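Hi team,

As requested, here is the filled-out complex form for the (S)-Methylmalonyl-Coenzyme A run. I kept the field names the same as last time so the parser does not choke. Let me know if anything looks off before we queue the next batch.

— J.
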Amino acid sequence: GLLRVDHVGIAVPDLDAALKFYADNFGLHCVHQETNEEQGVREAMLAVGDGSGPRIQLLAPARPDSAIAKFIDRSGPGLQQLAYTVADVEAAADALRARGLRLLYDTPKRGTAGSRINFVHPKDAGGVLVELVEPA
Ligand code: MC0
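And here is what came back:
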């Protein structure tokens, strides 16, 4: 099952500009940053408050043919995904597949900080791109 909200992902055109915007206006600071070549994304995790709750993930395109670039081209910057923490990403994906939902990957891919991830297609989840995250 789903354990908690892991993060909310926001597509941004420019990661450095977005990090400055979030720090200056909202006082939110980066606690992790990496480039995920497979996903074609530069991402930064921001902690809110004492950092014990869900994070905000800023997602910037690392290449023009990436999922984030396509999202921004079509929809503009903004909320792109809602991610839940799960204990076992394969079990969680199997349970959703058994209910008829389309998972984007047959086997999990590598996500932030060595996590294992999969996604439910937004058309099967009420217009929300749902990510499943099994932390490292
Ligand atoms: C597309 N659609 C969305 C959407 N992206 N709806 C809600 N939220 C989104 N993020 C809608 C379009 O508006 C369109 O609707 C329909 O889905 C298009 O479906 P499609 O043609 O099958 O797909 P594409 O080519 O638009 O791609 C969407 C898809 C793609 C979700 C399959 O973005 C994808 O593979 N995403 C998973 C990977 C990803 O997002 N990576 C970046 C984050 P209409 O009504 O116009 O037909 S990496 C990450 O998150 C990692 C680092 C981590 O957290 O650890």
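Two things worth flagging: Helices lie at 15-26, 67-75, 89-98. Residues 9, 36, 39, 41, 43, 57, 59, 67-68, 70-71, 74, 80-81, 83, 104, 111-112, 115, 117, 119, 122-123, 127, 129, 131 surround (S)-Methylmalonyl-Coenzyme A (CB under 6 Å).

Thanks,
J.
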